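wait is this the right file?? whatever heres the structure
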């Protein structure tokens, strides 16, 4: 039995883009909705919230905001 490639599965399911691309696009769309909220809205406040104090050693944790900003460039926005 031959392994199915991503392109074959996409053709069978009738998809034009991969699931990863769809997730990136939807994340960027959600980010746009949050940015259009009022400054006092809880989602907007959470997006701009910065924790005070010491950080742990090592690489900083990835945040949703930084990931979406990076993905918006790869999707073709910005």
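ok assuming it is, sequence goes like this
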């Amino acid at each position: 039995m031959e392994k199915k490639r991503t392109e074959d599965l996409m053709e069978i399911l009738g998809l034009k883009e991969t699931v990863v691309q769809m997730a990136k696009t939807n994340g960027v769309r959600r980010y746009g909705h949050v940015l259009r909220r009022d400054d006092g809205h809880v989602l907007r406040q959470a997006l701009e919230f910065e924790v005070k104090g010491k950080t742990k050693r090592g690489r900083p944790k990835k945040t949703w905001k930084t990931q979406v900003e990076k993905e918006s460039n790869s999707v073709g926005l910005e």
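The chain has a mean pLDDT of 80. so i think its the right one actually
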